[in-house]
Design a protein that fits this description.
With 314 residues, the protein is mostly helical. It contains 15 helices and no strands. The chain has a single domain, classed as Na+/H+ antiporter like fold (Up-down Bundle). The protein is globular. The relative contact order is 0.19.
Length: 314
């Protein structure tokens, strides 16, 4: 548990810095939206571009291992989406953002250091296999569902066409696509482009966390804590449980693969949950609350899953 605390502590510190900076007028509240726009439209696409450059897709593809993780992810999306629509009467676009908050995992900022501490450097290639498909698959699906959810009664064919146009113009997906194309083509990236995108990529974590903290003043998080708690528990409990069921009981995978699949699924909601919600301006309060709650609760649930894996696997 202390290892988990040492990882999440700095994250909460930067969020708190953003919150109190705006609260005590040390940073202008009007500047938060501009900071978030910078993160969404410039820094995060560069981060995704750089991430795709380094993925080894040839070794990353293990169907049963990947299915164990991603069946759980999409199941969580459906559960959170339906809970938002049926029980909380959210509009389709808002429900998509809620579903996104329950299935997009913090694979790198928390997953990487925690899995490295738990299972050593030899476990990291298994994590990178999931990471390689994580952003392009889940981002693309989330964007498609959001665009369809926003079609406002338009015919499905027309909605699909307009959705495709908007998706292809999305800077997040552009970053992913360019990175994959550069990776698969084997082309060398010009030094200037590589350096600029790397510099912008390093701005994502501090800027997004600071912006998240500053934005918390705009939302009545107490009113959405219940729905965010449901999304958080789906992410922290249901996702790893499904990953364990498929990887261990259905596919009977190697224990090393099972450990990484389950522990990665047990990670809290990723920061892209908040970025996705702010990009579409849907359920931002729930997204912000889910990131905070799942990260805090993750200190306990991740520790619990480590104990479960130790007892279940040889």
């Amino acid at each position: 548990m202390f290892a988990v605390l040492s990882v999440v502590g700095p994250i909460f510190a930067i969020v708190a810095l953003g919150y109190f900076s705006v609260r005590f007028k040390l940073y202008p509240a009007a500047g938060v939206s501009g900071l978030i726009s910078f993160v969404n439209n410039f820094a995060t696409p560069c981060l995704l571009f750089q991430a795709m450059l380094s993925v080894d897709f040839a070794t990353a593809f293990n169907p049963q291992y990947l299915l164990s993780f991603y069946i759980g992810a999409f199941s969580c999306f459906v559960l959170a989406f339906l809970s938002a629509r049926i029980f909380f009467k959210r509009r389709p676009g808002e429900a998509v953002a809620v579903g996104f908050s329950a299935y997009f995992t913090n694979t790198v900022l928390l997953g990487l250091p925690i899995i490295q501490r738990a299972y050593g450097d030899e476990s990291l290639p298994y994590l990178f296999a999931i990471v390689g498909f994580h952003a392009p698959l889940l981002m693309s699906f989330g964007m498609l569902m959001m665009e369809l959810g926003k079609r406002d009664g338009a015919p499905l064919g027309d909605a699909l066409k307009s959705s495709a146009k908007r998706i292809f113009k999305n800077p997040l997906l552009i970053g992913i696509t360019l990175g994959i194309l550069a990776n698969l083509s084997g082309l060398s990236i010009p030094g200037l482009v590589n350096d600029v995108t790397k510099m912008l990529a390093t701005a994502v974590l501090p800027a997004a966390l600071f912006g998240l903290g500053g934005a918390l003043l705009q939302y009545k998080l107490r009113e959405s804590w219940g729905q965010a708690l449901i999304s958080s528990l789906i992410k922290l409990v249901v996702h790893p449980a499904i990953a364990l069921f498929f990887s261990y009981y259905v596919f009977n995978l190697n224990p090393d693969l099972i450990r990484v699949a389950v522990l990665t699924a047990a990670m809290p909601a990723g920061l892209n949950v908040y970025i996705f919600a702010t990009f579409y301006k849907r359920s931002v309060d729930i997204a912000a609350n889910t990131v905070l709650q799942s990260t805090l609760l993750g200190v306990v649930t991740i520790s619990a899953w480590l104990i479960v894996l130790k007892n279940v696997l040889p």
